[in-house]
Write a structure and sequence with these properties.
The protein is an all-alpha fold. It contains 14 helices and four strands. The strands form two sheets. A two-stranded antiparallel sheet has the order 1-2. A two-stranded antiparallel sheet has the order 3-4. α2 runs parallel beside α9, α9 packs across α13 and α12 crosses α13.
Length: 446
């Protein structure tokens, strides 16, 4: 009888340990980190930093003029990767060889994987875009190369303006900057930055999405499903294409990273080193003062004196780009000297997938960036001291804290499943994200 009782008790214990409401033991590091998050979020704690699920449209920040729908997301997912959108190249032979994803591929954390993103006249891909180069045998003005590092598309739902200088977007942060919109008439449409960039980018990057494209490549039914309330004569336009692309971009959330898992209660999702790194990040390192909220970015602009493309070896600068405006960052857009050399706070998710850091791509490791900010010696001597962020050179991290923080950013903030956002194929049947000969070989399309 006693033997049966012991067995019964053991069974109850085992059963209780497998119940869904089992609460894992919280370590001192977990408790300290959670307390830190409570302090910097006015008591909201972990929930303040949680990203929504990608199909939870109601809780994803969106433009009220462009509500997210599943049909828009489906269309936008294909259009962003569709190389047949590359229909307006300067070089005829480059037609249908590039796409939006040429500079924003999942393998590189939805960034370019190289220092300068290249659309038209780019050659090759490699594994995550790291072997793409410009075809320097063609006229230089035919090369669609970026004069600044291509920002990631991850977590853009948490931005209301786009680009490093924030020039795209007709609401919110850009209210009061209308005098600077002369070259960005799209801002007057009243859309937020994600939508404006998707509209403007089609012209800048020589894409062509119109009636001819829709009918030639079989996208009519998808446009019909995404925009059923738009009359047929106005349905197949670059504006609607942009709204679909923007809706898709807004669901690109790094919500399967270990950090997100920890925030939801899995204390085992992070190592002790990563937890120590998070404590330094949200504490002594003061990183949270710019990198906050679910996407770990605010809507501000800051200068950390980082270098530009014009002082980087092998940078390709184009003659028709006002590089001085690019270098001045927000100031190049607002023409306000107080904004000079200030750039928008980037999200920190999946940084390790890209390999180049800073608006000029002048760093090649996460640790190098942290060490640089800790030391406080500007790369760019042109930046006035009064414009530098007050955190620059004042956080006094130890080498161990730098190592711990590096581990947190590289590992805890990396979503390993970004391929869930990539289509298995595109309707044209082309190779993607690039369709030039070398890329087709690299990607196994030939």
């Amino acid at each position: 009888m006693k033997k049966l009782t012991v067995i019964a008790v053991m069974a109850m214990v085992i059963s209780s340990c497998t119940k869904d409401d089992y609460i894992p033991i919280m370590s001192n590091l977990d408790a300290k980190l959670l307390n830190t998050l409570n302090e910097i979020s006015s008591g909201e704690g972990a929930t303040f930093f949680i990203l929504p699920e990608s199909d939870d449209y109601a809780n994803i920040p969106q433009d009220p003029l462009n509500p997210i729908t599943a049909e828009k997301v489906t269309l936008g997912k294909l259009l962003l990767h569709e190389t047949s959108t590359g229909g307006n190249p300067k070089m005829t032979e480059m037609k249908a060889s590039y796409s939006c994803a040429s500079c924003h591929q999942a393998a590189a954390g939805f960034a370019a994987g190289i220092r300068q993103g290249i659309g038209e006249c780019g050659i090759g891909f490699g594994i995550r875009g790291e072997e793409r180069v410009a075809d320097t045998t063609v006229p230089r003005d035919s090369i669609d190369v970026q004069p600044i590092k291509s920002p990631t598309l991850l977590n853009v739902a948490y931005q209301d303006v786009m680009l490093w200088n924030g020039q795209f977007g007709g609401t919110g942060t850009n209210a009061g900057t209308e005098a600077s919109w002369t070259e960005i008439q799209e801002n007057f449409l009243g859309f937020q930055g994600v939508e404006v960039q998707a509209i403007k980018g089609q012209k800048v990057h020589r894409l062509q999405i119109d009636d001819e494209f829709v009918n030639t490549f079989g996208y009519k039914e998808l446009f019909d499903a995404a925009f059923p309330d738009v009359v047929g004569s106005e349905r197949y336009t670059k504006r609607n294409a942009a709204l679909a692309i923007a809706a898709y971009e807004r669901i690109l959330l790094a919500n399967k990273s270990p950090w997100q898992d920890w925030l939801k209660g899995n204390n085992d999702a992070l190592t002790d080193i990563e937890k120590k790194g998070a404590i330094a990040f949200f504490g002594k390192g003061k990183c949270y003062e710019c990198h906050t909220g679910p996407a770990l970015n605010d809507k501000g602009f800051y200068s950390f004196g980082m270098g530009d493309f014009d002082n980087v070896n092998d940078a390709l600068l184009l003659y028709d780009v006002n590089i001085d405006n690019v270098k001045r960052g927000r100031g190049g857009f607002t023409n306000n000297s107080a904004d000079n050399f200030k750039f928008k706070t980037p999200t920190l998710y999946n940084l390790v997938d890209n390999g180049f850091y800073g608006h000029g791509g002048t760093f090649t490791s996460v640790k190098a960036v942290i060490s640089y900010k800790n030391q406080g010696t500007p790369q760019n001597a042109e930046v006035p001291a009064e414009n530098l962020a007050f955190q620059f050179g004042t956080i006094n991290l130890t080498e161990e804290e730098i190592d711990n923080m590096t581990s947190f950013i590289e590992n805890s903030l990396r979503d390993p499943e970004l391929n869930r956002y990539v289509p298995e194929s595109i309707i044209s049947g082309n190779c993607f994200p690039n369709n030039d000969y070398t890329s087709r070989v690299d990607l196994g399309c030939d």
